[in-house]
Structure formats: C-alpha cells, structure tokens
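My hope is that you will study the protein record below before we discuss the fold together.
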Amino acid sequence: MQLMLAVQQDSREAFDALFRKYIGPVVAFASSYVGSRARAEELAQDAFTQLYRARAQYQPRARFKTFLYRIVTNVCLSEVRRAHYRKETSEVPEDRLTDMADAQVRTGEDDLVLREQVDTMRRAVLELPPQQRAALLLARVEGMSYEEVARSLACSVSAVKSLIHRATISLRTQLRDGR
C-alpha cells in the first residue's frame, strides 16, 4: 500500500519495486487465465501500464493486491473476448493449476496419470466462461477472499459465490464426462 501511495506521487523507484514484487504472480495468473505464457507476459505489461495510468484513482481502503488484480482481470477479460483469442488458445500452464490437483511427488505411471489429469483440468478451466474462470482462479489459485474477488471483478460477494459454484459444477461435469 505504501509503495502505491509513493507511485501516486510519481516515484519511479516505488513503481519499479511494485513491478518487481508482483510481476511473477501477475504473469502466472494471466497465464492460467489465457493459456499462453508469452501472451500473459504481454498482458502483464499492459496491466502495469494501466496501473500506472490509474495511480490517481487508487484509494488505500482495500489491499493493493485487490486493486492490482482488478486491473489484471480486466485486461485478461478483454483478451478472451477478442475474436482471435478463441483461435489461439492452447492450454493453461501446468505451474499454476497443478496446485489445484493436489500434486504430490510421484514417479512412473502415477506421474503420467497425474499429468493427464492436470492437462484435463487445464482444458476444462479454459472452457469456463470468462467471469467464472476469473472468480475461480482468483479464489482458488491466488487465494483471495470472496470479498477481494468481488472487488477485483466489480461485483457482489454473492455473485462471486455463484460464479465459483457454477464453475465448480461445470468442472465437475466436464471432468466426469471426460471432455
């Protein structure tokens, strides 16, 4: 929060510190969201540019991470709404969704089965509607509270609960049906 307040005062050093602190998690989130690490890096750059431009609007009422992830989520939502996105999407990177699959150290055949399950989950998450995907990833992968997710998505807590519930049902159905 203090760094962002310094950014509001045009501190280049504070912005650089924020960038270094959050670039990794932002790229990882965007990568999980859009399914391409290279595109996620570009989106992260866009998000930080927008963060800098929106610095005057920052109010230290909520956690800085919530403010940042609202910008990042909006950038990702804009990306998935583009027509060409649907043609270029490949897969959600393993590094973020493996946590959702309760990966333990395995070898041989167990490792192969786990990788197949993670790939199936990755594809299923990419098939979720954008808002459901965002709510699920922010809550389950990024560990944000429902209140923080609601602020990030500019919706109510009950809407977040509904989005996550519908995403969970969709994932369960897709995974059960083997899609």
Notes: The radius of gyration is 17 Å. The CA atoms of residues 9 and 179 lie 51 Å apart. The domain at 2-177 is CATH 1.20.140.160 (Butyryl-CoA Dehydrogenase, subunit A; domain 3).
